[in-house]
Every structure is written in structure tokens, then in C-alpha cells.
Design goal:
The protein is mainly α. The protein is built from 16 helices and three strands. Strands 1-2-3 form a three-stranded antiparallel β-sheet. Strand 2 and strand 3 form a beta hairpin. The longest helix is centred in the C-terminal third of the chain and has 23 residues. It starts with 18 loop residues before the first strand and ends in a 16-residue tail after the last helix. The relative contact order is 0.16. The structure holds coenzyme A. The site of coenzyme A has 16 residues, from helix 15.
């Protein structure tokens, strides 16, 4: 039996054709296509690429999901709500589940805002409609485009915790609804899907452009981490940050200038303190600015992440099923002596 590896770091637990992450070069591809080019295709085409199968009829499927979810009670936590709504879905096509998650985000948003849920508009693109249901008003073209780029960018990212969870469930021969429900549970954890909120808290605390540098210095002196900086895999700037920064450029937000100033100050200060370790902006940094500029409540950031990542989960579910082998690692016994 092999040795225990904490966090399974560096363990290759799957073979995949869905995405490739190059942490040293700072690049990400979905089935060989660079992430920026994937985002340029738009959600529907990007989902078809990631799933390696057509994704059709999302509009009518959102309407169908809305009708099905209508009677389902929604627990109060945002991710608890999405999980409860999706858990009751019928096992169907990937497109059905993508629609279910998007509509669930809209229903949870309505609950948090204390307003009736908006009925899906099947004529809109998936991003524009999910954004509309989540924000509670029609998005501008620039907002819809920005959200679309976000949803594409986060569709997949190697064997992250929620994707691994989905694969484990699929490997038992269980259904896609169960795999997605379990993955939503994994994504809910703050170590996985939770950094964009704190990035906004940080920008709130900095407040003004000329305070970026002293604020960053004081945080680091106090031994605290700068949110949205650093990454377990990337040793350069997260390539997704660039895609999102470009998408934010089309939106009206006063935050962008402040965000750039904080990023520059943090990058310089971290480089001085950790000269042999590149600590640069990660995906969460510009996710925060983008989702806020679209008008999304901070509590809905992780649910919106799920609306994009569900595509990757389903692609991995299909891959894992094709292996026909259950994921069943070993454990090392460290309990009382066995007599
Ligand atoms: N701010 C300040 N210092 C940081 C830092 C940050 N954002 N990220 C890493 N460091 C420092 C650590 O304190 C550590 O210093 P030390 O060697 O003096 O103890 C060193 O850099 C290495 O950090 P480590 O924890 O080994 O990096 P990691 O690869 O395990 O962690 C993250 C990666 C993402 C968890 C980490 O960079 C982080 O906490 N970032 C902030 C939270 C965040 O943005 N999360 C979203 C990730 S997508």
C-alpha cells in the first residue's frame, strides 16, 4: 500500500480531455482551445465544446425547470437553496441539468431579495436570462456579455474538489443529478468557492486609490493574506484573471481603477516579501469586480459559480462513467491496536 498523501496533492486521480491547466506557463485550455477563445464563443457554444456534445434547447428547458422547481421549499442559505432545488431534478440530459442550476440561482436570488422569482425568458441567451433572474431586472448587453464570459471561464479547471466529488459519485454508477448535488455540496465550502466576497470587503476597506499601497503593507505586516492573490497551481498570473479583467472593461464600474491599484500594490509588496514565489492575482480577484458590476448580490457569487461549473462537472461525469471503474482509494489505519 502506498503512503498517505495529505490532500492528495500531486496525485493523478483521473485522465481527462476536458481541460488542461498549465500552472507554470499560466495557461488554461478547454479541449485544446485557450480559455479566452472559449469565452469569446459564448455560453451555449462553450458548453457544447466542454461537453463534446450539442447543448440545445436551454431556453425551453429553463421554463421547464422553473415549473418543476415551483413547489420545492428553498432553505435559507444560498448554496443550500441551490442544492435543494437541483436535488429534486429528474435525471435527464446535461442541458436539463445546466438549465436546472441556472434557474435555481434565480429562485434563490428572489428568495434572498424577498421578491417573486422571475419567470425564465426562453428567447434570451442562457447568461442573459440567468443573470436577469438572479439580479431581478434585465441585464444590459454589456452586463450579459460580461456574465457570459465569466460563466465560460469557470466551466472547468482540472481536478478541483467539486469536480473530483462529481467523478467519485459517477464512478459508482450513480446518476448525474446525484453527482451534481454532491458537487454543489463541495463547492459550498469556503476553501473552494468562497473568495470573491472577501475581495470586495477588501476593496471596501481600502476605499481610495492612494490608500492601496499603505493598506496592503499594513495587512501584510499584521500577518494577514491579501484576498484574490496567490494560487495553489499557478506560479504566474491566473489566465482567467486576464479574461475577466477584459470582460470587466466593457462594464461601468468605479471599482476597476481601485482594483487595479490594489492588485499592483499587492503584487509589488508580495514580490518584495516572497521573491522566490510569484503571488499574483487569481480568478477570484476579477470575479468579484465583474459579478458586482453586473449587479449580483455577494451572497450569490458561489451559486453563480455553480451555474458555470456545472458544465465541467457533467463533462467529467460522462468521462468517469466511460471508465466503468469505481474510485476506491485506500486508507491507513491509525486507530487503537487491533487485538
Ligand atoms: N497574501 C499574502 N501572503 C500570501 C498570499 C496572499 N494572498 N498567498 C500566499 N502567501 C504567502 C504565505 O503566507 C506563505 O508565506 P510563508 O512561506 O512565509 O508562510 C507563502 O506565500 C506560500 O503560501 P502557501 O499557503 O504555501 O500557498 P498555497 O499555494 O498553499 O496557497 C492560496 C494558495 C490561494 C490558498 C493562497 O495564495 C491564499 O490564501 N490566497 C488568498 C485567498 C484566495 O485568494 N483564495 C482564492 C484562490 S482561487
Amino acid at each position: 500500500m502506498g503512503a498517505w498523501i495529505p490532500g492528495l496533492a500531486g496525485v493523478v486521480a483521473a485522465r481527462t480531455a476536458v481541460s488542461r491547466v498549465d500552472g507554470t506557463g499560466g495557461a488554461l485550455w478547454f479541449r485544446g482551445v485557450p480559455v479566452q477563445a472559449v469565452a469569446d464563443r459564448g455560453f451555449e457554444a462553450a458548453a457544447a465544446l466542454v461537453l463534446d456534445a450539442p447543448v440545445e434547447g436551454l431556453g425551453p428547458l429553463r421554463v421547464q425547470a422553473f415549473a418543476r422547481q415551483a413547489g420545492v421549499p428553498v432553505p435559507s442559505g444560498a448554496m443550500d437553496g441551490v442544492r435543494a432545488l437541483v436535488a429534486g431534478a429528474q435525471t435527464g440530459s446535461a442541458a436539463e441539468l445546466i438549465a436546472e442550476v441556472g434557474v435555481a440561482v434565480g429562485r434563490v436570488a428572489a428568495g434572498l431579495a424577498g421578491r417573486p422569482a422571475l419567470v425564465p425568458d426562453p428567447a434570451l441567451s442562457h447568461a442573459a436570462d440567468v443573470g436577469r433572474m438572479a439580479v431581478g431586472r434585465p441585464l444590459t448587453a454589456a452586463e450579459a456579455e460580461g456574465l457570459d464570459a465569466y460563466l465560460c471561464t469557470v466551466m472547468d479547471h482540472g481536478l478541483n474538489a467539486s469536480t473530483f466529488t462529481a467523478r467519485v459519485v459517477a464512478s459508482t454508477g450513480s446518476d448525474a443529478v446525484s453527482a451534481v448535488t454532491a458537487a454543489l455540496g463541495a463547492l459550498k465550502g469556503p476553501l473552494h468557492g468562497g473568495a470573491p466576497g472577501p475581495v470586495l470587503d477588501m476593496l471596501d476597506a481600502v476605499g481610495m486609490l492612494d490608500r492601496a499601497e499603505p493598506w496592503v503593507r499594513a495587512e501584510l505586516d499584521a500577518g494577514r493574506r491579501i484576498m484574490g492573490m496567490g494560487h495553489r497551481v499557478y506560479r504566474v498570473r491566473d489566465p482567467r484573471a486576464a479574461v475577466l479583467e477584459r470582460a470587466v472593461g466593457g462594464l461601468h464600474t468605479e471599482r476597476l481603477a481601485l482594483a487595479r491599484a490594489v492588485e499592483a500594490a499587492a503584487e509589488a509588496a508580495l514580490a518584495a516579501r516572497h521573491p522566490d514565489r510569484a503571488l499574483r492575482a487569481n480568478v477570484e480577484f476579477y470575479t468579484a469586480i465583474l459579478l458586482e458590476a453586473v449587479g449580483l448580490d455577494r451572497r450569490l457569487f458561489t451559486p453563480m459559480f455553480a451555474a458555470g461549473r456545472v458544465v465541467g462537472w457533467l463533462a467529467h461525469v460522462a468521462e468517469e462513467r466511460a471508465t466503468g471503474r469505481i474510485i476506491r482509494p485506500a486508507s491507513e489505519y491509525v486507530g487503537p491496536p487491533c487485538t
